[in-house]
Write a structure and sequence with these properties.
Length: 180
């Protein structure tokens, strides 16, 4: 009987906590409100400015999911409205753990095969999650996009024929393209 009650408590706790995390992602990322101005987030330091796009980071910032701690989080703002967060996934083991966590949480991903990488895409309400796995070095990039604003970013980039490129890690050989 004790094991039945313990199992029931665990199932109840899982049911109660899972929607909360998903609800938080619907309205915020890491405490920053989607569409909110950079001034609402504490401790942001400007990393790059290009046109209407601004990219910020926080010292010693990280984001954890699926038992993996992703470091070097970069926050993207378009016309001073928060639209995206980008981070690195260090190795193959962490990539697999993150992909498994996202699949458990949001279902099977759509995938796109490119010459040097595979892109896994999950959609959750107004948030698009992309996990890019680079074949050559087993590194991955994880990004969360607020879709209504990322569409505006894409349209603005098409109009100006520009593409923003930033490095998430100073040790990277190639610059990471922030494509949407």
């Amino acid at each position: 009987m004790k094991s039945f009650i313990a199992a029931l408590a665990i199932i109840t706790l899982a049911c109660l906590t899972s929607p909360v995390e998903a609800q938080d992602l619907q309205t915020t990322f890491s405490g920053i409100r989607w569409g909110g101005p950079a001034e609402e987030a504490r401790g942001l330091e400007l990393v790059r400015q290009e046109g209407h796009e601004s990219y910020y980071a926080k010292t010693d910032d990280f984001y954890s999911l699926g038992g993996v701690t992703c470091e070097k989080v970069v926050y993207g703002f378009f016309q001073n409205r928060f639209f995206a967060a980008f981070m690195t996934v260090r190795d193959e083991k962490e990539f697999k753990a993150v992909r498994e966590h996202l699949t458990e949480r949001y279902g099977d991903a759509r995938s796109q095969m490119r010459m040097d990488r595979t892109i896994y895409i999950w959609d959750y309400l107004d948030v698009k999650i992309k996990l890019k796995h680079y074949e050559e070095n087993s590194q991955a990039k994880l990004a969360f996009y607020y879709t209504p604003l990322s569409i505006e970013v894409n349209e603005a980039r098409k109009a100006t024929q520009s593409e923003t490129v930033i490095k998430l890690d100073s040790g990277e050989d190639d610059e990471m393209k922030l494509d949407f």
